[in-house]
Amino acid sequence: MNLKDYGFMPDMETEHDRGIPARIVAVHRDRYAMVCEYGEIYGRLKTKEYYGGFEEFPTVGDFVRIDYVSDGDSRIIATLPRKTFFSRRHPDAGRGEQAVAANFDYVFLMQSMNRDFNMKRLERYLTLTLQSGAVPVVVLTKADLVEEQEFYIGSVKQVAPDVRVHAVSSRSGAGLEELREYLQPGKTVALLGSSGIGKSSLVNALAGGEFMKVNGIREDDSKGRHTTTYRQLILLENHAMIIDTPGMRELGMWDVSEGLGEAFADVEQYVGQCRFGNCRHLTEPGCAVKAAIAAGTLTQERWDSYCKLKKEARYSDGSRQRMQEDRSRKRGFAKKRER
């Protein structure tokens, strides 16, 4: 198997690297499915490198170095530098960051045009995607079930005017050719969206086969049924790749220092125009934010969304700093033991 088909480039190699390169294609708890020059294999993390705090824990899409084992699980010894990375606050309290995907070029931010459509969730997806360094693309599914597509597209454009939006139907094929423009050889597209919005159907339609099991949205309440239960990377026939993720209705902020500013540029333009530098945007005179809301150039709902995500980001900044300090201590202890 040629790892270049999975996006591996010669400049990722260094003459001092140990082992051989591989790419993570699926994550199953503490076991990883990978591809390398020997084909499809499985591996586990080498304890010293990872639990000693020396390496970033890998996720689907990561390129890693491995000690290859032909008759069992190989050992993952290093995570190679990432060009893009997407993470969220771990859904289990106190566990910090959870890696979601790495090394992708585009992120399809997916919502269905029915009761699942949620602008606040889209704002959250957009913030995290912009932070990752990839290009966001909004994909609105179930186009065959609605007539007022322009309403949904217009709603997205109000909060993301510079982001491309596509209305598609996996059933009728509408809009799929536009999405194939992103699926070029060597390119990786990550999918983000809640359960049941049509991610699996879209993958199957784009891939031209039944790559993934499909479960739809329950008709009685529009709630999605979980289909994908683990993160995985799928290689298409033209050597483009898709990273699918389990339906994630909640995405807690982690490191979004840059993404928040990009996603809410329309809001932050007012924050710096207040008369007082320490304005809390409550009752202070000369508040540009309050003036914009009163004038109708900024909606209260948009401001509230920004404040909520900003608050989450401040909380995560503190958590991230504590985790970094803990990791530094572990590295220090490990070095002492080696002496």
What can you tell me about this protein's structure?
There is one protein chain. By secondary structure, this protein is an alpha/beta fold. The protein is built from 9 helices and 13 strands. The chain has helices at residues 47-51, 119-132, 149-159, 176-180, 199-207, 259-263, 265-271, 288-295, 300-338; strands at 20-28, 31-36, 39-45, 63-67, 74-79, 85-89, 97-102, 106-112, 135-141, 164-167, 188-192, 232-235, 241-244. The strands form 3 sheets. A 6-stranded mixed β-sheet has the order 10-9-8-11-13-12, with helices on both faces. It is globular. Residues 214-228 and 318-339 have low confidence and may be disordered.
Q: Which geometry do the CA atoms define?
A: globular
Please outline the major beta sheet.
Answer: 6 strands, mixed
**Tally of contiguous helical segments:** 9
Our measurement of the CA-to-CA distance between the termini, rounded to an integer number of angstroms, reads 41 Å
Q: Which strand order does the major sheet show?
A: 10-9-8-11-13-12
| Low confidence ranges | 214-228, 318-339
Give the tally of β-strands: 13
Instruction: Tell me the Rg in angstroms.
Output: 22 Å
Strand content of the residues, in percent? 15-25%
Question: What level of helicity do the residues show?
Answer: 25-40%
Class of secondary structure makeup:
alpha/beta
Mean pLDDT: 82
Order of SSEs: EEEHEEEEEHEHEHEHEEHHHH
